[in-house]
């Protein structure tokens, strides 16, 4: 039996041609053995019907076994030739034939260099994607930090506003300079708060774009 792999034929037929021929070979051998058994049985019956026959059943079986061996040798020779013809002319897909499911390979064929270039480009895109994800996570962390700072500043501004209102309600004139200082400080803090809000909006936009 031929041992040359025929992977493309196996893809088309669903089995390897060698396996198919091997089943045919064993099936024929089994059939030949069954026939010889029938022949042996028929000969023995015929001999029993002949009076004075000196041929023993063991001699008949030896003869049929020799005949079976001869037939198997002849069959092996013939089958070897048949196998060669079937594998080359019947069960073989020509090299210039492309199966329907492989047509896309003909349309989108790439050389080794082109395939390597595509792999390099894919790897670069993956690295860029990971870098953008990391940058987005860093921006998100900074945004959360800015939110926390903004909340603290709003509390400070509320405290200054409450102090200024209290001084005004009680007419604490001796606190004039302190109030002016507090007012100026409050305005500065408000400007800082606006700057923080502006930066937070910018970070949000960058996060959305990424």
From TrEMBL:
GO terms under biological process: cell division; kinetochore assembly; mitotic sister chromatid segregation
Locations listed in the record: Chromosome, Centromere, Kinetochore
Coiled-coil portions: 179-206
Keyword Cell cycle among record annotations: yes
Main location (coarse class): nucleus
Record InterPro entries: Centromere_Mis12
Metal-binding among keywords: no
A cellular-component GO term for this protein: MIS12/MIND type complex
Alphabetically ordered keywords of this record: Cell cycle, Cell division, Centromere, Chromosome, Coiled coil, Kinetochore, Mitosis
Family recorded in the similarity comment: Belongs to the mis12 family.
Protein name per Swiss-Prot or TrEMBL: Protein MIS12 homolog
Source organism of the structure: Centropus unirufus
Gene, per the UniProt record: Mis12
